[in-house]
Design a protein that fits this description.
The chain has 1 helix and 26 strands. By secondary structure, the chain is mainly beta. The strands form 7 sheets. Strands 10-11-12-13-26-22-21-16-19 form a 9-stranded antiparallel β-sheet, with no helix packed on it. Strands 18-17-20-23-24 form a 5-stranded antiparallel β-sheet, with no helix packed on it. Strands 1-2-3-4 form a 4-stranded antiparallel β-sheet, with no helix packed on it. It has a single domain, classed as Beta-galactosidase, Chain A, domain 5 (Distorted Sandwich). 1% of the residues lie in helices and 41% in strands. The radius of gyration is 19 Å and the shape is globular.
């Protein structure tokens, strides 16, 4: 299917959407933020990700929903980073001395170009100029989405002409049941350690075992889906990138299951407790509120610019960036 107009952002630029299809899966991608806007399994009569049919939401409080976020997702402590002896300063987040999701010029705020497409894939490209948002280097990013049967695969590559922080991730909220909310759903994650967070949810530098604690998802656990649980932390899948392997499984109450695989060494689990979509139309026909769905963000470990013993996230001219993350959907009979 050819790209279609999705809407216009406030400055008049057009946002396009392109729909990818297999016999089992239909996925809509936006050029704004490289958003995974909608995911539909042929045998399931509801959307599997939180999203909106209107561009206004993605310019507003839904800007993270399905976006490919970066150059550095999550938080940068003190809004600064020292690279090869030089200090760089970034935009301050409104709620503290942090840079959140790379600020107002982050990749989720950019309109990407469609370089190639067919019925089952699209390739998007983005140029980030030196100094945008305080980040050094002219960066070229390519993002490809492929669908095959019931799987969606995302392949990201990037290069820079100067050393620069780069730790992006997809930020989809996965909604596997017919109504938003995930109370009673089961989550399994293949991580035996996590990054201890401080009061600002920045890593303290300590890597702790999950053993039999609230962050132990290895055998699968039932999610409360409300304020009884609090999740906004990095689960350590390893200390370096690895070949693509399954790392998490989310299972809904109505028979839909999603298996996530990645090459990345970390998975940020966010409970969606601050979601505020009251002003926007949604794929579910009702506004999104707190705990509408969890986000599972495959990335390197947050805090690496401050904790030097964490995996290195500096993208250098001689070493291009590469990530693969995939999501495979299935159904089973309940009861």
């Amino acid at each position: 299917m050819r790209p279609e107009t999705f809407g216009q952002v406030a400055d008049g630029r057009h946002v396009q959407k392109i729909t990818l299809r297999s016999e089992q899966l239909t996925v809509t991608i936006l050029t704004l933020g490289a958003v995974i806007n909608d995911v539909r399994l042929t045998s399931v009569p509801w959307p599997l990700t939180l999203g909106s049919p209107d561009v206004a939401g993605y310019e507003g409080k839904l800007s993270s929903f399905g976006s490919f976020m970066g150059p550095v997702i999550n938080r940068i402590k003190g809004c600064t980073a020292k690279i090869d002896g030089k200090t760089y300063r970034f935009e301050k987040h409104h709620s503290g001395n942090l840079t959140q999701h790379s600020g107002s010029t982050g990749m989720h705020r950019q309109i990407w170009s469609i370089a190639e497409y067919e019925s089952d894939y699209v390739m998007l490209t983005l140029h980030l100029p030196d100094g945008l948002g305080g980040f050094p280097g002219n960066r070229e990013i390519t993002l490809r989405y492929d669908i095959e049967q019931a799987s969606l695969r995302m392949t990201a590559t990037a290069s820079s002409d100067a050393p620069t922080p780069f730790n992006p991730a997809n930020h989809s909220y996965w909604s596997l049941d017919s109504k938003p909310g995930y109370s009673g759903q089961t989550l399994q994650i293949a991580a035996d350690h996590y990054s201890e967070p401080d009061a600002e949810l920045m890593p303290t530098g300590r890597i702790l075992p999950v053993d039999n604690g609230p962050n132990d998802f290895r055998a699968g656990c039932t999610l409360a889906g409300d304020a009884r649980d609090f999740y906004d932390l990095n689960l350590c899948l390893g200390s370096t990138k690895a070949p693509l392997r399954p790392i998490a499984t989310l299972t809904g109450l109505e028979g839909v299951c999603m298996e996530m695989a990645t090459t990345e060494c970390g998975l940020q689990l966010y409970d969606g407790g601050t979601i505020d979509g009251r002003d926007y139309s949604t794929h579910h026909g009702a506004p999104y509120g707190p705990y509408a769905a969890p986000a599972l963000e495959a990335q390197s470990w947050p805090g690496s610019l401050d904790q030097r013993h964490f995996p290195d996230i500096i993208l250098r001219p001689e070493t291009p960036y590469h990530q693969i993350t995939s999501w495979t959907f299935s159904t089973k009979q309940i009861g």
